[in-house]
Design a protein that fits this description.
Nuclear Transport Factor 2, Chain: A; 7 helices; 208 residues; alpha+beta; 49% helix; 5-stranded antiparallel β-sheet
Amino acid sequence: MSFFHPIRVLASALAVTACLAAAPALADDVTDGQAMVKDLMDSAIKDFGGKKVPAEQRDALVHGYIEKYGSVPLSAQDILGRYWTRATPEEQTEFEALAVDYAIGSWGKQLDDMPVDQSITFTSSETTPEGRIVLHSLVVNTDMTPVDWQLAHTPEGKLVLADVAINGAAMVQTMKADFTTIIRSNGGKVSALLDALKTKIASYKTAQ
């Protein structure tokens, strides 16, 4: 993704911090995960490589990536952490939608003029104590960038991309820290975060 960058939109970042205790990943999941990442990168390059896509079309494409390769409920729970269970069902549903719109608004423009000549080499893999798979890779363009792809299984058993860490910086961990700060500074109210996200998303749409 930064690609990417559609995947960072989904984010969920626990795994890369647990590498020291991680075990070898299951071969089938590693193979399937590598194929999924390559398919995602190929799709992104096809859709955005060397060109600028109109905002409405870009957002629709990224939403499609999220539906195909990710799990919004899983990532939303990762981002809110302990505040997920404190949110009402209505707040949980609203947060899932707002988190996607926020991520696309924040990073969607990075997809413009994506280099068409990038390639990926997987270097190793592991499974965290939480049962998530981490694929370590190098994305090669003008230089080599370390990218860690975190995979997880949904309750239905689907393998999805849960987060992406570029040069060690995991997107979900960043979102989780930022959002937790907002909630804590507003008396632990998830509703305060929802209001803040609505304001930020509105500013993105105005800027378009």
